[in-house]
Design brief:
heterodimer; A: about 425 residues; alpha/beta; nine-stranded mixed beta sheet; eight-stranded parallel beta sheet; 14 helices; 19 strands; about 30% helix; globular; B: about 325 residues; five-stranded parallel beta sheet; four-stranded parallel beta sheet; 11 helices; about 35% helix
Chain lengths: ~425, ~325
C-alpha cells in the first residue's frame, strides 16, 4: 500500500524530528519523511494540514479476551477499538481461556488477527503454565510462534525462585518478562487502595507496599539474572523511586503507566462505581503526581492502557465481586492530549515518545518511528477537536470506562496501518 | 419538617439537622410502644420489603416491628429463601422486587456499597440496614437516641469505641454521627484492628483500653468476630479478652456515671464480662428498644407523610 501524508507537523521522536513536512509510505513501509516529497503517480494523498503526524501509536498492554471471553471482546472488536483510538499495534496479554501458554493458542491469536484484525497484534505468552505460577510455560516455543514477551499479567508470579528461572531461561530468546507487581498475600481480598478512603468506605484495602515489595524483588532478580523485566502499570511513589534508582544503576528494567493511574485517584471509589475498581488500584494524588513526574523524566518508558474489557454482568455487581479493570484504547489519546499536554504535565513530543518509540523499545517491536524502512504506520492527531467521551459509540464490545461524559480537547484524526487508512475522523474504514 | 432525600444510605452525608429531626421523630414514636394497642395508621397501604442477605435477628425484627406498628405491609426476604442462592444477581433481585412496587426496600448485605447500587437503580426508598464494613446508619441513630435520653444532650460528650474498628460498620456510622452532633470520639483496639487513616474521620486513636475509657462519658464495646483469629489479626480470643475485654476490674478506670453500650450480639466473656453486660452502667437493652423507635421514625420520614409538609397523620406530636 502506498500513501503520502502531506503538510502535517511531523513529530518523530526516534529521529528527533518536529517539523512541517510529508510522510511517504511505499509498499507498506515508510519510504521518506521531509518537505514537499515527490510521490509516484497515483499515490493516494492525505492532507494533514493543521494536524500532527506521528508514528503509529503502540499499546503494549491490552486484553483482547479471545480465545475464551469473546462476550467481553474479540480480536476483531479490540483491534477496531485500537484503530479508532489511534493505535496501530497492540500487545495482548496471555490471560485468555485457554491461556496463551502454548504455540496452538499463539497461532490462533495470530490467525484471528490476520483474518479480522484492523491493527497489528503482538501476542504475549504466559510465564507459567495456566498462569498457575508453578511450572514454566514453553518459553522457547512461544517465542518461535511469535510471542514478543512473557507475562502472567493479572496474577503476579509470587514464587521468586520460579521467576528467577524464567528470567534466566528467557535470555535465550531475548524476550522480556512483564511483571504484574503486586504482592498477592498483601493484596488478597482488597478492592481498592488502602488509606483513609478505603477506611471511610468500609472497603478492603491493598497497601501501596504490595506493589513496592514486588517491584523491589523484580528489580533484584533483573539485576541477578541480567535479563530484562518490564513493570506493568506502575502506580506508586515507591515503585517509581525504585525504578528510577535501578535505571540509574543500569539494571535492565523498564516501566509503563496507564492513563487512569495518571488521571484518577482513589476518590473515584466514593461512588462505589465498579468502573473505578482495578488492579493495581487507583492511588491518592501524591502517587498520581509521582507517576506523572516519572513519565515526564523517562523513568516510565511508556503509556499503556491495560485495556481490560468486561461486560456489564462482570461489573454491575457488588464491588467485592466486580471484575478488575477498565477499557482504554478509545480514550487514551484524547485523555492524554487533554490532561497531560494541555495541562502542561508533558510536552507534545514527550507524550508522542511515550506512545510510540518508548513502548516499541520496551518490547523490541518494529514501528514506533518514521525511519525509512519502518512499518508504514502513522497516526494523525487533531489537537483542537473538542468532544465528549461517549461510551455508546465505542467500537469495543465493552463499555467499562470511568471516563464516560468527560470533555476532551484533542483526538486521533486518522490511523494508518502499513499505508492503509483504517480510521478517518473517528470512523473506521 | 421531613427528610429531603429518597434513601438513607449512610450517616456520612446526613446534615446534623437531619439527625436531630430523626431523633426527635423517634422520641415521639416511643410513646406507641407503651400503648395497649401498638398500631398507628401512618403507613397504611405502604409496602416495606426487608431484604436481608446476611444473617440478622435483631435488626430485621426491629425493622419488621417498626413497619407493622406503623401499619405498613412488611415482607421479609432473607438470604436463604431468596433467589440469590439460585445465582440471581443483586441487581436482578432488586429489579424484580421493584416490579412489585414496594415503597421501601430495607437492605442488609455483606458487600459495602450494595445499598448505593440499589439506590441508583430503584425508584423506591432504600434504607441501609448494614452494608459490609461500611455503615449501619440505623444502629448509630439508635445509639445517639439512647445517649441523648440518658444524658439529655449529645454536644460535648465524649465516647470511647473499643474493639474491631477495622471491620465495623457500627463504628463508622457512629463516628460520623457522633462527630456531627458535637461529641468527641476515641477509638481503641489492637493496631491490627484499627484501620489506616481513621484519624482523618476526626477521631483520636489509642491502643490501650485503660487509656481509652478513662474520663469518657460513654464506652461502646464492639463485637469481635471470632473468625478474626484466622486472618492473623489477633493471636487468640484469650489474649484479646485479657487485653481488650471490659471487665468490672478494668471498668474502675472509668467514670462512675459511665454508660456502657454494645450493638449486640454480645460475646460474653470476650469483649464484655457478664457482670458488665448486665450491670448498672449497661444500656444495651435500651439500645434495642430504641432501635424500633428509630426505624419507625425513618420509615415514617422516608415513606410516610413525614417526608412531606404537614402534620403527621395518626402519630403523636
Amino acid at each position: 500500500m502506498n500513501l503520502v501524508v502531506r503538510n502535517g507537523r511531523v513529530i518523530d521522536p526516534a529521529n528527533g524530528l518536529d517539523a512541517p513536512g510529508d510522510v511517504l509510505i511505499l509498499d507498506g513501509l515508510v519510504s521518506r519523511v521531509g518537505p514537499k516529497l515527490q510521490a509516484p503517480a497515483a499515490t493516494p494523498t492525505v492532507d494533514a494540514g493543521g494536524r500532527v503526524v506521528t508514528p503509529g501509536l503502540i499499546d503494549i498492554h491490552v486484553h483482547l479476551r479471545e480465545p475464551g471471553h469473546e462476550y467481553k471482546e474479540t480480536i476483531a472488536s479490540g483491534t477496531r477499538a485500537a484503530a479508532a483510538g489511534g493505535f496501530t499495534a497492540v500487545a495482548c496479554m496471555a490471560n485468555t481461556s485457554p491461556v496463551n501458554d502454548t504455540r496452538a493458542v499463539t497461532d490462533y491469536i495470530l490467525a484471528q488477527a490476520r483474518a479480522g484484525g484492523l491493527v497489528r497484534v503482538y501476542p504475549i505468552g504466559a510465564v507459567t503454565r495456566g498462569l498457575k505460577g508453578t511450572e514454566l510455560a514453553e518459553l522457547g516455543e512461544l517465542a518461535e510462534a511469535g510471542c514478543v514477551a512473557y507475562s502472567d499479567d493479572g496474577r503476579p508470579v509470587m514464587n521468586s525462585a520460579l521467576l528467577r528461572r524464567a528470567l534466566e531461561y528467557a535470555q535465550t530468546f531475548g524476550k522480556p518478562i512483564i511483571s504484574h507487581a503486586e504482592d498477592a498475600t498483601l493484596a488478597e481480598g482488597g478492592v481498592m487502595h488502602e488509606g483513609s478512603i478505603s477506611t471511610d468506605l468500609g472497603l478492603r484495602g491493598i497497601p501501596a507496599a504490595a506493589e513496592e515489595i514486588l517491584v523491589a524483588r523484580d528489580i533484584a532478580l533483573a539485576e541477578l539474572t541480567g535479563h530484562r523485566v518490564h513493570i506493568a502499570h506502575v502506580s506508586t511513589t515507591a515503585a517509581v523511586r525504585l525504578l528510577r534508582d535501578a535505571k540509574a544503576r543500569g539494571v535492565p528494567v523498564t516501566g509503563e503507566v496507564t492513563p487512569h493511574h495518571l488521571l484518577l485517584t482513589d476518590e473515584a471509589m466514593r461512588s462505589y462505581d465498579a468502573n473505578a475498581k482495578m488492579a493495581p488500584a487507583l492511588r491518592p494524588k501524591r502517587d498520581v503526581e509521582a507517576c506523572r513526574e516519572a513519565l515526564a523524566d523517562g523513568t516510565l518508558d511508556a503509556i499503556a492502557t491495560d485495556h481490560a474489557p468486561h461486560a456489564l454482568t462482570d461489573k454491575e455487581v457488588e464491588l467485592d465481586q466486580a471484575a478488575n479493570g477498565v477499557i482504554g484504547l478509545e480514550t487514551a489519546a484524547a485523555l492524554c492530549l487533554t490532561h497531560l499536554v494541555r495541562e502542561g504535565v508533558l510536552d507534545l513530543p514527550t507524550l508522542i515518545t511515550r506512545l510510540t518509540v518508548g513502548p516499541a523499545r520496551v518490547l523490541d517491536l518494529p514501528g514506533g518511528s518514521l525511519t525509512p524502512g519502518a512499518p508504514g504506520d502513522v497516526t494523525i492527531l487533531d489537537l483542537e477537536r473538542a468532544h465528549t467521551i461517549d461510551p455508546a459509540r465505542f467500537y469495543s464490545r465493552s463499555r467499562n470506562t470511568p471516563f464516560g461524559g468527560r470533555a476532551c480537547v484533542g483526538a486521533p484524526w486518522m490511523t494508518v496501518v502499513g499505508g492503509r487508512i483504517v480510521m478517518r475522523e473517528g470512523t473506521l474504514a | 419538617m421531613g427528610l429531603k432525600r429518597k434513601d438513607l444510605l449512610e450517616i456520612r452525608t446526613l446534615e446534623p439537622a437531619e439527625i436531630v429531626t430523626i431523633l426527635d421523630t423517634a422520641a415521639s414514636m416511643k410513646e406507641i410502644a407503651s400503648r395497649e394497642i401498638k398500631k398507628v395508621p401512618a403507613l397504611r397501604g405502604k409496602t416495606v420489603v426487608n431484604l436481608f442477605l446476611e444473617p440478622s435477628t435483631r435488626t430485621r425484627t426491629s425493622f419488621e416491628i417498626a413497619g407493622k406498628w406503623l401499619s405498613a405491609d412488611v415482607v421479609n426476604v432473607s438470604g436463604s429463601s431468596s433467589s440469590v442462592v439460585k445465582g440471581e444477581t443483586l441487581m436482578d433481585t432488586a429489579k424484580n422486587l421493584e416490579a412489585m412496587s414496594p415503597d421501601c426496600v430495607v437492605i442488609r448485605h455483606s458487600a459495602s456499597g450494595a445499598p448505593h447500587m440499589l439506590a441508583r437503580a430503584l425508584r423506591c426508598s432504600i434504607i441501609n440496614a448494614g452494608d459490609g464494613m461500611h455503615e449501619h446508619p440505623t444502629q448509630a441513630l439508635l445509639d445517639l437516641l439512647t445517649i441523648r435520653e440518658k444524658r439529655g444532650h449529645l454536644d460535648g460528650l465524649s465516647v470511647a469505641i473499643v474493639g474491631d474498628i477495622r471491620h465495623s460498620r457500627v463504628a463508622r456510622s457512629n463516628i460520623w454521627g457522633m462527630r456531627k452532633t458535637g461529641m468527641s470520639v476515641t477509638v481503641a483496639g489492637p493496631p491490627t484492628l484499627i484501620p489506616p487513616g481513621i484519624e482523618e474521620l476526626g477521631v483520636k486513636v489509642t491502643y490501650r483500653l485503660e487509656d481509652a475509657i478513662r474520663d469518657v462519658d460513654i464506652v461502646m464495646m464492639l463485637r469481635l468476630q471470632q473468625e478474626r483469629m484466622t486472618g492473623g489479626y489477633i493471636p487468640s480470643l484469650r489474649e484479646y479478652a485479657r487485653l481488650w475485654g471490659l471487665s468490672l476490674d478494668k471498668l474502675r478506670a472509668a467514670r462512675d456515671d459511665v454508660l456502657i453500650m454494645h450493638p449486640g450480639p454480645v460475646n460474653r466473656g470476650i469483649e464484655l464480662s457478664p457482670e458488665v453486660a448486665d450491670g448498672p452502667y449497661s444500656v444495651i437493652l435500651d439500645q434495642v428498644a430504641n432501635g424500633v423507635a428509630v426505624r419507625m421514625a425513618l420509615l415514617y420520614l422516608l415513606v410516610g407523610r413525614g417526608g412531606e409538609a404537614g402534620e403527621p397523620g395518626g402519630v403523636p406530636a
